[in-house]
Sequence to fold (963 residues):
Amino acid sequence: MRVRFFGGLAVTSDDGEAVVVPGRARQALLLRLAIDAGTTVGTRALAEDVWVRDAPDDPRAALQSLVSRLRGSLPAGLVTSTPGGYRLELTRDDIDVTRFADLVAEARAANDPERARTALALWTGDVWTPHEGFDWLVRDLLEDRAHAEGLIAAAAKTSTASPPTASASPPAAAAPAASPVGAALTALVGRGDELDAIRERLRTDRLVTVIGPGGAGKTTLAIETARAVADSIVVELAPAAAGDVWTAIAGAVGRRIRLPETAATPVSPLDRVTEAVAGRDVVIVLDNCEHLVREAAEAALALLRMSPGVRVLTTSREPLGIPGEAFVDLGPLPPTDARVLFAQRVRSARGRLPDDDERATAERIVQRLDGLPLAIELAAARTRTLTLAEIDAGLDDRFALLSHGPRLSVERHRTLRALIDWSWDTLSAGERIALQASAVFADGIGAGDAAAVAAAFEVDAEEFDALVDRSLLVRRDARFRMLETVREYGLDRLRTDGAAETYRLRAAVVLTELAAAREARTRGPGLRDALAWFDANDENLTAALRVCAEAHDRRAGVRLLRSLVWPWAVRERTDDLRRAVAEFADPTAALDDEPRVVVEAVALFAAAFPAPGRPSTVTLESYTARRAELEQAAHRNRSDVTALVPPLLRLAQTVLRSGAGDAARTWHVDVTDEEFAAAPAWTRAILHALRAGAAQNSGDMTALDRESERALAMFETIGDPWGTGFASQLRAEWLTLACRLDDALAVTDRSAAAVQGLSSVPDVLQQQSQAVGILLRLGRLDEARVRARAIDDAAQADGSVRSLAQAYMTAAQVEVAAGDGEAALRVVGLVDLRGQPGIPEQFSAWLDAQRAQALLLLGRDDEARVTLRTALSAAISSQDHPIIASVLLAVAGWNAVTGRSGRAREALARATAVRGAADVHDPFHVWVSARTGAGAEETSTPAGGIRSALSDVDAETLTALLD
Fold:
């Protein structure tokens, strides 16, 4: 397959046929995977680039759905799942933008204008991107284009300036001024912006520190800056010991400036330097200050006071701490420059650039080395004896792999370990512990959690800030983070010391404590902030669960899992929750504390509601016995959550009974007055909401009114946005059926605002769709269209099957209300459920009901009848009464258009009985009612075999309405 982005998006199969990738979200995912074709792209990186704005509340689940959707558009096997992310199984040559970038990199490395021309031939038009979030890609490609054009221009200029005969001599060039610093051994790759920043700072500030991690190229940039200055002195402090700073400075100054002859009276190095620089405009570079930072700071301050013409440029892994000190931060190389550097050094080591089939491996090596120039050079040097694939595999133990550097390099630059050892040796005992502790937190450490983490490892929280100053940690977005190379160094130190397991267990303990504190805030106004904490620490928490499992410490695992139950439930991470519960639940364990009771109750509840497509593994008898044990334990270990255990387990038991034939009790909530009285406020609100849901399903409008009103009022008083949204949906349902449509719309809009950023995108869109339905009942068709389009935009951006299906069904409702059956049928046809496991029967029934309504509007009655038989079967099997009522409304429509007005009125009556009230303002209900008075069959007498109870949802009873 080939993918083109220059001049527009175009995907073609190997046989030249066009492959259509619809939807901006899928197209954005394809572009992001294509940029790193053949390489795993992490889920976090994918989510950040695909959803640059309005990121989904659960990026992991949304991405999984989007990948599934993209796979449906592409040939099989092209998008694969890997640990931590996804990979597009194409070569970089199959993608025009990556082929272009690679050709330019090769051209630059080989100074080859022909390759530059080949690259530019690929640029057939502007770079296509799905949104502005890929402006970085456009900038990188434009920069590459400028490099390619520059190579061609330089070659043309050389060709034009060449003499006509080989014997002629070129004109003599003007001799450059002698540089005070020796010539560079290799050309500098990238870092143009940083060099400009250093020069700009030196024009405005007298003391500038280039600060960054080891191996970032601080010395290289400082010397490059000094090379361009008329008068400069470079002082190498790395070999200097404590007390030798001034001796080193005097020695460097003496090599550049003739110092006065020493008189009979001894002159100190400081005095000699003072006399030498007096009256001069000179830049003095103090290189590698971090191991003598205090002495270096004092020396820099003294130098600045010697003469107003003195400027000091220092390199360090931490600030000097002098007032007026300006900084230029030096991080990893940008990806393009890192690839060029690696390619050039590989060519130097083995005589040729990376081959086409090695490009993906080369890029992966560069990425794994954090773009650090020294690490890249060390890795490239190994290509004399190793293949790139062997180097990539060897990076799992990068410190052993990169243990051989240039013989004449300074000691600290000969190996990757020595590079970080140089920093390690300057750390205090507390800072070393803090660094190793940071290494076991894959997500980093939140600034607000630093004190607790520090206490767990018996150090001061200020040690983390000290590590930031030493360029071993980065503080970004209120979190302390590490470069992967530094993190691997910390983990390697732990393994060497035999302390890795101890540190990981300590991390699990402190994360459990922090999670418990945050979890307590998830049932009230602190829910948003608490969920943000759980999201930011997702990898940390998952790793902590894994540590507990590997240590066979179920009690510790249960304590941590207890704090994840509700956050994961709100985020709809049911698969993760099922797996974790299966790992730590133990029916033989004593029910002696609250976490154990909650986890075991969730395990039993999950057994009654198995994953879609899987049978229940528990019998009614065993369930009943275990339920009794858990109810007693819940009463002994009271909390907001354990108070829900008895009624929820009873609810699940009614589902098991319905599977055995007792369908009348499906979705039944039993709770005693004593349990209500003893329950905390939040728990009572949940119970009222559950009762409202049961009432809605059973058609009890009186109970729906009472329970939804109580639940909504309680959640609003508590300040719980998720509960408010949940209860609002139920309240709006009753208000709609009570014909209080304006009130229903207001409640629904408040509900959608309440859950924004909390629930999944499909859930938010479902609430917004409810508002569209109310607008249609109010006759405000234009407003409904506007909102339906907004829902479609959000669904396209999300890309998940559920979101898109919700958007299409909402649009279909609008078209049915407008009387446009053709448009409605077209939109319904966009719903693609192929390959989607576990689609609820309710949704299938609702989809077919919408399709039948569209067919009836078009006069395609026979097709509608076939569709309605399928819809009725699914609806009855689901035991979802509102869905059954929706299908019966369409059944009434079929009877009305086929001249069976009596049957139509009966179907309407049955829909009303099943729902509990007539939805008289539903546009299709209005359409059916207008037609029930016409036709040959006026009788409302039930057909033979139809039982009299209108609320009966027996399959035979209802399908007879289509006979």
Notes: The chain has 44 helices and 13 strands.
